[in-house]
Specification:
Elements lengths: L6 H17 L3 H87 L5 H26 L9 H24 L2
Helix pairs in contact: 2-3, 2-4, 3-4
Length: 179
């Protein structure tokens, strides 16, 4: 028997072919899907970069702010330390000049009485007087030079001046004991 292909058979075959074609893979649809996936990935990547940039900017701003605060605090401490050192210089200069003036007054009074001493004590007095005048010159130079003393040397310079004033006072005390 011969198969009879009629209109209904042709229609069925055409419908079958269209159905099979519809089930077949569509490359243009795959391309659009891939393009959409790429675009989504790029958007996510940009969002991540923007988030990192924002985080970096925030972190950097905080670090800069903290750094400025630290520098400002350090500058204030330096200014305070310099002001204190300047005050110490002025106070030591004033008190040292005052002490030297008092010692000079005492020594001058003793010098005016020195001619009343017996010869042996007068010789001792003259030797101590020479010691006093030499030390007095050193102390005067130290007082005059206080403003030029470098900050790093201030402690030793102030101690040295104080020690020399004490020695000078001791010498005036020895002069007074001769009477």
């Amino acid at each position: 028997m011969k198969p009879i292909v009629g209109i209904s058979g042709i229609t069925a075959a055409t419908t079958l072919m269209v159905a099979l074609a519809g089930c077949a893979h569509d490359p243009s649809k795959d391309l659009r899907t891939a393009e959409n996936d790429l675009t989504s990935a790029q958007v996510k990547a940009r969002e991540n970069v923007n988030a990192i940039d924002a985080n970096y900017a925030d972190t950097r701003a905080k670090a800069v702010s903290e750094g400025r605060t630290n520098v400002s605090d350090a500058e204030k401490k330096l200014a305070d330390a310099n002001a204190k050192l300047d005050t110490d210089r002025k106070n030591l200069t004033a008190s040292s000049k005052s002490s030297l003036d008092q010692l000079d007054s005492q020594a001058s009074n003793l010098k005016m009485k020195a001619d009343t001493l017996p010869p042996a004590k007068k010789n001792q007095f003259d030797a101590l007087w020479d010691q006093y005048t030499g030390m007095r010159g050193q102390v005067q130079d130290q007082i005059s030079g206080l403003s030029a003393v470098p900050n790093d040397s201030w402690t030793s310079a102030s101690k040295g001046l104080t020690n020399n004033l004490n020695s000078l006072s001791g010498t005036v005390g020895k002069l007074g004991k001769l009477f």
